[in-house]
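Researcher: We plan to redesign the surface later, but first we want a full-length starting point. Tokens attached.
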């Protein structure tokens, strides 16, 4: 598994209402978390033909859940993203996977709100996708800031 480094700036997110609809307001991610605004994220689970699920271990420098096992790939939707375009971007950034839109199988949307020990108020709608892939561990190019 290769590793790449990609320092990310504080990015703009679409603010959502309590029903998951865009309000028209865009704010920096840090402000969204500080203010406890609803926003959208994606989780992508990668499964190979043997039924094995790829998990990442979060780096020790992550603000939330450092060192814990996590979903194959996840991230915030940037302002203007659709769930599918955001999922494809996250796959490319975090794992070096160039998937096609039709390869992503939408599974569900869940709503989650919780106050983290780090001080972040995380209120998100999570769109969950499945990507069935024949890639092996050595085929992934892992983003250093995300996990191992």
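Model: Full-length starting sequence:
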């Amino acid at each position: 598994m290769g590793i790449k480094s990609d320092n990310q700036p504080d990015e703009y997110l679409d603010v959502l209402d309590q029903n998951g609809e865009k309000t028209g307001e865009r704010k920096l991610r840090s402000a969204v978390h500080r203010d406890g605004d609803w926003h959208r994220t994606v989780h992508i689970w990668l499964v190979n033909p043997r039924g094995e699920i790829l998990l990442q271990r979060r780096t020790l420098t992550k603000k939330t859940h450092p060192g814990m096992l996590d979903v194959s790939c996840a991230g915030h939707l940037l302002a203007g993203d659709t769930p599918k375009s955001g999922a494809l971007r996250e796959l490319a950034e975090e794992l070096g996977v160039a998937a096609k839109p039709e390869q992503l199988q939408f599974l569900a949307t869940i709503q989650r709100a919780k106050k983290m020990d780090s001080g972040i108020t995380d209120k998100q709608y999570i769109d969950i996708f499945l990507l069935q892939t024949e890639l092996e561990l050595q085929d992934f190019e892992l983003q250093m800031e995300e996990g191992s």
